């Protein structure tokens, strides 16, 4: 039962990482907040809480020592490629071990189809049209408190280290963090995996950053931060392009002799041209290799926490931000649809002695449930708006099901919404004109649209009524939080635009 016993992390000491490690050391862990954009990303959350942001943050006093909270985000992690969720390949030994020692929510849905809105939903417990950070031009309103701000106000030291340009501090992700380390994002375009740092890599996600995320997190832990602390680590490597290092490049398909590789995933015509079954199998094996590679660095982080005596009193929460398409609906990559290969993600919680070991929650859940669940377990009350619910009653067996449906939406140039229940799903878009209705029990791949089928009329009408409620609730809450103001906008720098363009998020 020991998460620390495993040491399956790869040894990748490329020049890239070393070079940045030197920079990191030179910075000296002075505790100064810094970020790539050069802005100070350290708003004072206490001021914010005190000056009337929506919903006061209130700390319960007189409690026993609060646990630390470690929030681990894994980029582009499909639920059906995770071992404890039924995948037959050994892609996620560490995540599986976490689930064995804790709680696995088997039907958790992302709130969107790409990183920026879905991770913001994790941080705010609001759906994308409510937190309104839906494009690279939006910044979170200062009126909305993030999980980091709430924990900061409750006395937590707060630290984040991330490696994806779409969740840089400038969008509001750094709100509430003492230090939000988003400099690892510059790895992507400053150099490639071979250590060539003399040119800007103008195409895709070619570098690797998991080692640096773990190294950075470990350094912070070794400085003995005040407890309790909240640490957010976000691992980027499973994102396309799929170019895992050895031995992960051949681990899941050692006998392949074809020519397909994991590059150019978001390029046409490749994006829309399904390869042969054999080649597709190899593409999936490369994606799996990236997942396994990343899993190893999460293992290293957990191992260090255990060695430092920090793991036992830490509530660990691991989630995937969204999945990826492999031609299930015609294309590759993500940010385009809300089918289950995109929205179904893993969610695992572990806190020995407080959370049951090996528990599986089958009720439908959402990434918006993370913040209320964390606050419930660590007994911090928050009166501001949250659209998620605490999963604690489900985890403790007080109820089987707490709600019938969850919501997801895309608004990044394409518009799509989805209402997802235990057995049925209603979809609209992209384009807002085409409705789809699926029976997830008999058609989990969402290939037979029953929207116009008379036999499905009753079930569809019930879900449609629910849809109206969701749409209304989202609109009302969005209006209340916005108070008539436009979403706060920012202008990304030229470099940031290039990064987002290379990832396929900006045309
Ligand atoms: Zn993502």
What does this structure look like?
This protein has helices spanning 15-27, 45-50, 93-101, 115-124, 128-131, 147-153, 187-190, 210-222, 277-307, 340-343, 370-377, 392-395, 457-482, 494-502; strands at 57-59, 68-74, 103-109, 138-139, 157-161, 179-181, 229-235, 314-320, 325-326, 332-333, 344-350, 359-366, 380-382, 405-411, 415-421, 424-428, 435-439, 488-489. Helix 1 packs parallel to helix 8 and helix 8 runs parallel beside helix 9 (277-307). Mean pLDDT is 85; it is low at 1-53, 59-63 and 188-204. It is globular. By secondary structure, the chain is of the alpha/beta class. The longest helix is centred in the middle third of the chain and has 31 residues, at 277-307. A hairpin with a 2-residue loop joins strand 15 and strand 16. The chain has an eight-stranded mixed β-sheet, with helices on both faces. Strands 14-15-16-17 form a four-stranded antiparallel β-sheet, with helices on one face. It starts with 14 loop residues before the first helix and ends in a 5-residue tail after the last helix. The chain is built from 14 helices and 18 strands. Residues 75-76, 114-115, 321-322 line the site of zinc ion (ZN).
Please provide a brief summary of the model.
The chain has 507 residues and is an alpha/beta fold. The protein is built from 14 helices and 18 strands.
Number of helices: 14
The small molecules bound here are: zinc ion
Give the CA-CA distance, first to last residue.
48 Å
Give the overall average pLDDT: 85
What order do the strands of the largest sheet run in, or round the barrel if closed? 6-5-7-2-8-11-3-12
* Rg for CA atoms: 21 Å
> Structural class from helices and strands?
alpha/beta
Major sheet: 8 strands, mixed
Helix content: 25-40%
- Which parts are unreliable, with pLDDT below 50 for 5 consecutive residues or more? 1-53, 59-63, 188-204
Tell me what portion of residues adopts beta-strand conformation: 15-25%
Shape: globular
Count of distinct strands: 18
